[in-house]
Structures are given as C-alpha cells and as structure tokens.
Design goal:
Elements: H1 2-14, H2 24-46, H3 75-90, H4 94-122, H5 124-132
Length: 141
C-alpha cells in the first residue's frame, strides 16, 4: 500500500502515461476512492473500537454481523481495494494500477488467516455468518 501511496503521485508528477488525465477515468477513480474511504470508515465504526491493524481477538471481542458486515464479511478490505484502485485511476498511474492488482492476493491471504482465527474464536456462529455473506463483493465473492 505504501508503494501505491508514494508511486502514484510520483508517476503523476514525472510522467504522462496512456491513461488520460482530468477525464472521465480520473473522475471515476476519485469516486471509487471516496466510496472506498467512506466504506472503510463505516466498517471501522461498526466494529465499535474492535478494529485493529493486527490480526487478533481483543478482550470482550464479539462477532459483528450488522451494518456493512451484514453485506460482506470484510467491508474494510473492500474499501481499501476501492481506495487504492480509485487513487490509481484518479492519478492516471499505471504503476499504482499494477500494485493495486498485486495487493489483492496479499489481502486474500490475510483474509484466509483472519477467517481461520475467527472460526477458532467464534466457531459455529462464524460458520453460519460465512454461509450468509460473501467475503469482499456482495453476491459474488
């Protein structure tokens, strides 16, 4: 993620690439960035202080299945993908587009480990939640 945050503005300032600047693609990127940022904020708020950047179960941790978590199991990660992709398009950055694509398998690896942890902690409750919701994209994945 840091590479995307640093490389997109650098590429924007130093190169003019095949993605047109200031056109509809840039506006779509800006919209995706805003939607992703809002989704991440709503997801963090829904966790009521249980959000952490490190995988782990905190004391008093409970399974949250409402709000954005009623739609997908990892709305914060969905928001991150939208933010990074949106920034890449808004900045017309091919480097950031490639890094955004490479970020997805890393995120899926993290989700796999997070879900193992949540299954261990919440057992059948989490299994039931998994059957009702998709990971990142409603009705698809």
């Amino acid at each position: 993620m840091l590479g995307i945050i640093v490389m997109a503005p650098w590429e924007y300032a130093n190169f003019s690439g095949p993605i047109p600047r200031d056109g509809p693609v840039a506006w779509i990127g800006l919209a995706l960035f805003a939607i992703g940022d809002i989704l991440q904020a709503v997801a963090m708020r829904a966790l009521h202080g249980l959000y952490t950047s490190r995988l782990g179960v905190q004391p008093g941790h409970r399974l949250i299945t409402s709000g954005p978590y009623g739609v997908v199991r990892h709305p914060g990660y969905s928001g991150a993908i939208l933010c990074l992709s949106g920034m890449a398009l808004a900045m017309s950055s091919l480097i950031a587009i490639v890094l955004s694509i490479l970020f997805v398998p890393i995120l899926i690896w993290r989700i796999h480990h997070e879900e193992e942890m949540l299954l261990t902690e919440f057992g059948d409750g989490y299994r039931s939640y998994m059957r009702r919701t998709k990971r990142l994209i409603p009705l698809i994945y």
